[in-house]
Amino acid sequence: MTIKTNDLTTRIRMGAITLSAAVLFCALPATAQMAGGGGGMQQSSPQAPAGQQPGAQQPGAQPGMMPGAPNSPQMMMDDMFVKKEIQGGMAQLQLGQLAQQKASSDDVKQYAAKMVQDHTKMSSILNQAAQQLHIKPSDKLDGKDKSLVKKLQTSSGQQFDEMYIEAMIKDHKEALKEFKSEAENGQNPSLKQFANQGAQMIQQHLQLAQQLAQAHNLPEDGKAKMKSGE
Fold first, then answer.
1. Where is the composition biased (Basic and acidic residues) (predicted)?
2. What per-residue confidence (pLDDT) applies to 39?
3. Per mean pLDDT, which range of 46-60, 107-121, 125-139 is the poorest?
4. What is the CA radius of gyration of the chain?
5. Domain interval for residue 139
6. Tens digit of each residue's pLDDT (9 = 90 or more) over 41-65
7. What's the rounded Cα separation, in Å, for the pair 230 and 227?
8. 164 with 229: CB under 8 angstroms?
9. Three-state DSSP state, 59
10. 73 pLDDT above the threshold of 50
11. Which of 23, 58, 73, 141 has the smallest C-beta neighbourhood within 10 Å, fewest atoms?
């Protein structure tokens, strides 16, 4: 079934399309309490062992971390998730802003605007989590995303639209795997909740990108143009 551009633009603008975002950002008040002093975390902490003052930090525990084995694989996974998704969010913002300026199709511009809006909110939560958990994320794009930005900066018209759409499919497929993995295997309950809700948003972004690909007669796997452009 062919999707008309006007129909797709309407879908992107619809309030229902932003529902998962509203759920995500309303469902995570505990993110602000991730630090060791947060009341929500203290209530769920196990009883202090005999001889240890209640609320005292366990030996080897990192400030702001959940009780548990220091530097455990799960905690390291939480750190890596926050760092990677903050970096990925920066890429989404730069790419979205670029697409709003350079895209030749209205539906691509509408999609890019949604990416900027949603990833701005998501990045705000992740940066707050990083601060509370004493994680220091990079403030620069990784090599892959930096290269993609440069390619898109030198592209225009239909070529730009196609490269951007296919990049969104590829990036959101990867992000979806990462969010699901954190939701299933992470240590911090608030991050796991964030990842679970965030996966729903990422899934929605992916579906919209695939619909864009269909509307622009592109493969929905996000491979063709990106491969030829590498």
1. 218-230
2. 37
3. 46-60
4. 20
5. 1-7+75-230
6. 333 344 445 555 544 444 444 444 4
7. 5
8. no
9. coil
10. yes
11. 73
d(CA 208, CA 83): 26
Residue 168 lies in a domain: yes
* Distance between CA atoms of residues 151 and 162, nearest Å: 12
| DSSP-based helix, strand, coil % in the chain, nearest 5 | 70, 0, 30
Cα atoms found within 13 Å of the Cα of residue 204, Cβ hemisphere only:
20
Number of domains in the chain: 1
Output the domain CATH number for residue 152. Answer: 1.20.1260.10
Residues 6+ apart with CB under 8 A from 159: 225
Asked if the structure places residue 158 within a domain, the reply is yes
In a domain, 66, yes or no: no
Confirm if 157 and 104 have CB atoms less than 8 A apart.
yes
Q: What DSSP string runs through 71-85?
A: T-HHHHHHHHHHHHH
Q: Which helix (H) or strand (E) holds 11?
A: helix 5-13
Q: CA 29 to CA 47: how far, in whole Å? A: 24
Residue 28 falls within a domain, yes or no? Answer: no
Give how far the C-alpha of residue 152 lies from the chain's centroid of Cα atoms, to the nearest Å.
Answer: 21
